[in-house]
């Protein structure tokens, strides 16, 4: 894997080759990564996966025509050939009046913020094996656990660099450490599965292996005795480990491409209340050690923290340069891309601000409802907002969690769900999208 300095040098050369071949403008992206993953099962090593790779991508513009190519061969002569091929392809592409690099005057100038994404630690396979074994041992020690699907520990590092023909050059590296375990529990002929995992940038922030293992075992055992519910309308509470999926549907609906294609259920909602006044949602690309932190976006624009939802109101779209031009707006620093193809749009670290009530108080006011810890399937219509997904979790009865629930479907419309959503005060930052416990009133649960 190239150093960031070497990667930026290759990108600069590639952009120069493209201009020499006849491109009016170009940008190039480098992505390199290496990782080690160790998996154990029933106390024995099952496999060790080690990988290392790097790719480079080039996007060229000839007038309003563009083309993208990518390669893993980074030799100078190969890059020259790649540039010539890209320019030839662009000459045959259809015109797109919205295509082009990001506005030059909006590019990030100077060094970006230090986001503390790389701890420089790359554990060897032996230490990863010990971590995975510790997690599995702790999980299998939980009474009621009958079998193991295994535990794994991984570590890796990635580097991203970007260069454009109109003056941007930048790059950053990030480390990653994770641990996970998945267990089976059995009682009276019924089997249930659950697990736990944790992923961080810095090793010293990773949960203890024993903590993750014990949580995986306890979650599996807690699901024993699961049964269906009687169908009907009821409040549904989303555990923080699944609450982020609701926010994911919002992020897809406010992405620039969905708006330009008119395929969003929030098409007419800009500047309007989408949630209740108690809901504020932030996008923070500068969170130190954040899982999606980044100093610049996929087009070289600076990133910045902003509220996507402010006291319930939708404040704006997430725009790359192409969708911004189509909507006659400015790009927002949300462009995201891989080495192949043009940029898309992505949020960074997103979280719902905590509410005033505790989780127990949120649940305590519910006579009969559903507490969801698992969602199954993808039954969501992004155009209409219709929502229907399989779910599992626990019955809420008289303000407390009762027996586990499985094989039910929860349904509603995201517009109504968002308006009827409230948040507890138990926000923790563990994922890319973080929420407190969320309550959605008036959903339909289909069971028996």
UniProtKB/TrEMBL annotation:
Residues 122-224 form the Metalloprotease TldD/E central domain. GO terms for cellular component: cytosol. One of its GO terms (molecular function) is metallopeptidase activity. Residues 231-447 form the Metalloprotease TldD/E C-terminal domain. GO terms for biological process: proteolysis. InterPro entries: Metalloprtase-TldD/E_C, Metalloprtase-TldD/E_cen_dom, Metalloprtase-TldD/E_N, PmbA, TldD/PmbA_N, TldD/PmbA_sf. Residues 26-90 form the Metalloprotease TldD/E N-terminal domain. Belongs to the peptidase U62 family. This is TldD/PmbA family protein.
């Amino acid at each position: 894997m190239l150093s960031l300095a070497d990667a930026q040098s290759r990108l600069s050369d590639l952009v120069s080759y493209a201009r020499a071949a006849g491109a009016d403008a170009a940008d190039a992206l480098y992505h390199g990564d290496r990782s080690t993953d160790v998996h154990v099962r029933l106390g024995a090593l099952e496999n060790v996966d080690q990988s290392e790779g790097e790719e480079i991508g080039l996007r060229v513009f000839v007038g309003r025509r563009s083309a993208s190519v990518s390669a893993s061969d980074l030799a100078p002569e190969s890059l020259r050939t790649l540039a010539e091929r890209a320019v030839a392809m662009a000459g045959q592409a259809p015109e797109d009046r919205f295509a082009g690099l990001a506005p030059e005057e909006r590019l990030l100038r100077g060094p970006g913020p230090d986001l503390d994404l790389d701890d420089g630690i790359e554990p060897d396979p032996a230490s990863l094996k010990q971590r995975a074994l510790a997690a599995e041992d702790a999980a299998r020690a939980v009474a009621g656990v009958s079998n193991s699907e295994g535990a794994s520990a991984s570590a890796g590092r990635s580097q991203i660099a970007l260069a454009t023909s109109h003056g941007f050059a930048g790059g950053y590296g990030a480390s990653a450490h994770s641990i996970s375990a998945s267990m089976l529990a059995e009682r009276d002929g019924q089997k249930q599965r659950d697990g736990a995992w944790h992923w961080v940038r810095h090793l010293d922030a990773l949960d203890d292996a024993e903590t993750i293992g014990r949580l995986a075992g306890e979650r599996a055992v807690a699901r024993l005795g699961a049964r269906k519910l009687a169908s009907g309308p009821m409040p549904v509470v989303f555990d923080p480990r699944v609450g982020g999926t609701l926010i994911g549907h919002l992020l897809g609906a406010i992405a620039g491409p969905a708006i330009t294609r008119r395929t969003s259920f929030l098409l007419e909602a800009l500047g309007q209340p989408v949630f209740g006044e108690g809901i504020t949602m932030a996008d923070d690309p500068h969170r130190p050690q954040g899982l999606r932190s980044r100093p610049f976006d996929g087009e070289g624009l600076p990133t910045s923290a902003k509220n996507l939802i402010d006291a319930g109101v939708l404040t704006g779209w997430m725009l790359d340069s192409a969708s911004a031009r189509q909507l006659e707006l400015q790009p927002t620093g949300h462009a995201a891309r891989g080495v192949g193809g043009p940029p898309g749009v992505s949020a960074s670290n997103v979280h719902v601000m905590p509410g005033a009530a505790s989780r127990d108080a949120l649940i305590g006011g519910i006579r009969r409802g559903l507490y969801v810890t698992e969602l199954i399937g993808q039954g969501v219509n992004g155009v209409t907002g219709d929502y229907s997904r399989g779910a599992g979790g626990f019955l809420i009865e008289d303000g407390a969690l009762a027996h586990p629930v499985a094989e039910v479907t929860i349904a509603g419309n995201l517009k109504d769900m968002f308006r009827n959503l409230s948040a507890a005060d138990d926000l923790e930052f563990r994922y890319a999208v973080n929420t407190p416990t969320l309550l959605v009133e008036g959903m339909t649960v289909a069971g028996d």
